[in-house]
Amino acid sequence: MSDWDTAPEPINNSSPALVAAVTEYQRLSDTLDQMKEQHEGLLETIAAEFPIMSGEQAIDVNGMTVTCTRSERWTWDNELLEDLFASSDELPEHIKKRLTVNKRLFQFLEDEQKKALLPALTRTPGPAKVKVIKVSD
Question: What is the mean pLDDT of residues 67-94?
Answer without folding.
Answer: 81
